[in-house]
Amino acid sequence: MSTIAIFGFTGYVGSHITAEALRRGHDVIGISRSEVPGSDAAVTAITGSITDQELVRDVAQRASTLVVAVHGSVDGAPFLPGLVPSLLEAAAAAGSRLGFVGGAGNLLVAAGGPRVVDTPEFPAFAKTEAESQAEALKALQASESAADWFYVSPAAGFGPQAPGERTGSFRVGGDILLTDADGNSYISGADYAIAFLDEIDTPKHHQQPFSVAY
Questions:
Q1: Do 10 and 32 touch, CB atoms closer than 8 A?
Q2: What is the pLDDT at residue 136?
Q3: pLDDT tens, position by position, 60-73
Q4: Pick the CATH number of 3-213 from 3.40.50.1240, 3.40.50.720, 3.40.720.10, 1.25.40.10
């Protein structure tokens, strides 16, 4: 098995990815901005920030995959897009792969658009986060870096408010929001993590985004 470094490993998505990685026998380096007392002994926990370029470079040398499970925005301002160049640089130098926990806002509601974030019903309080995640993806796609990356957008219904269960059954799509026969779009945290680890274990999307939902 490989070593996976997870920035934001104590958050909602990061904790699910951590659990799935451990379940599959991977070694996990977990990075969090604050010290985590009593964290899983199987995780090598590091207190630090994804903004610390020296830390990112060091971790990249130790892990085959860097997982970015942090917010796209902080305090109402974009956060993640500006970090993309340094993350790509560190990954390329170390020969590591970058995996991004993305958002659903950048997905299209149908072929030709509009994006989910641009629809009238999209909540105003979540727009900065959604736009920031979308800008991070644009930065990845515009980069000429040799680093291999992937970006996984969840369904529209996703998060701690609707955690769901681990079923192991879901669909993988592209840049159009996946919905069921009733128009619902949903994925549990555990099943999102399965899709994410599937991509780490058996890479299929090289320098590409994809989406996952029921």
A1: yes
A2: 98
A3: 999 999 999 999 99
A4: 3.40.50.720
